[in-house]
Amino acid sequence: IAQMFYAHFFGATEIFILVAMAYDRYAAICKPLHYMVIMSRRACYVLVLASVIGAFIHSLLQVLIVTELPFCGPNQIDHYFCDIFPLLKLACTDTRALIITIIATTGVSSILTFLALVISYIIILITLRTRSSEGRRKALSTCGSHITVVLMFFLPLIFTYVPMADSVSDDKVFALFYTMIAPMFNPLIYTLRNTDMKNAMKKLWCQEKVKTIESSGV
Predict the structure, then answer these.
(1) CA 2 to CA 103: how far, in whole Å?
(2) Which of residues 93, 112, 138 is at a domain's end?
(3) Residue 151 is assigned to a structural domain of this protein
(4) What is the DSSP string of 172-200?
(5) What is the pTM of this model?
(6) Is 181 left (phi over 0), alpha (psi -120 to 50) or beta?
(7) How many structural domains compose the chain?
(8) % of the chain beyond a pLDDT of 90
(9) Is residue 36 situated within a structural domain?
(10) What is the pLDDT of the chain when averaged over all its residues?
(11) N or C end of the chain: which has fewer CB within 10 A?
């Protein structure tokens, strides 16, 4: 139960943080003169606190659903972490209503959040039409890493929670993306737009290339 709580807590926190980051980019690109007022330090604290509280409530509800179920059969699930759908399969009662409820809450909220992010970037792209080519390039460079993370996180999440959860084997593959692969690549994706990081990687690549040429020459 604790594993399921932490998995849902960190997953929901990342969803809310991605939404907050989309709002930050919207403010930076669409309202640059008011950015420091909109995204003040206090506003950032409020967004982070709201993300944590929202994730805690979401995870607590998932745990409360499971703890109220009777379990009288096998105690092994076909999954690599304790997720709610595999647990529901072990319950000794009819869980169809609960599955529909979870899909209607987690699945629909994931879709709505993803659509909200898409709409925010559509507004940003419309705003960029009036900017110079250099301004568009900088803005797209700023948003590129966030868009990549959003796609890597939300698409597997939607495929997991939106359909009826009968194919646990597919759920394992999708869950692997939004619980391990996307978080693992997050630091790399966000640092690739850093100029110092790019220069360091180019320097390292050139050094390795020179060493390869020298070794082949010898």
Answers:
(1) 21
(2) 93
(3) no
(4) HHHHHIIIIIHHHHHHHHHHTT-HHHHHH
(5) 0.71
(6) alpha
(7) 2
(8) 2
(9) yes
(10) 75
(11) C
Residue 49 pLDDT class (50, 70, 90 cuts) = very high
Q: Which domain holds residue 75?
A: 1-93
**Residues contacting residue 14 through CB under 8 Å, at least 6 positions apart:** 153, 183
Give the chain's largest Cα–Cα span.
72
Q: Identify the CA nearest to 4 among candidates 53, 59, 58, 57.
A: 59
Question: Where among 93, 108, 125 does a domain terminate?
Answer: 93
Provide, rounded to the nearest whole percent, the portion of the chain with pLDDT above 70. 70
DSSP letter assigned to residue 76: -
Q: How is residue 91 annotated by DSSP?
A: B
Torsion over CA of 205, 211, 217 and 218, rounded to 10 degrees? -160
CA 177, CA 183: separation in Å to the nearest integer? 8
Within-domain flag for 55: yes
**pLDDT digits 0-9 by tens, 3-36:** 777 777 877 888 888 888 888 888 888 888 888 8
* Closest by Cα among 141, 3, 123 to 62: 3
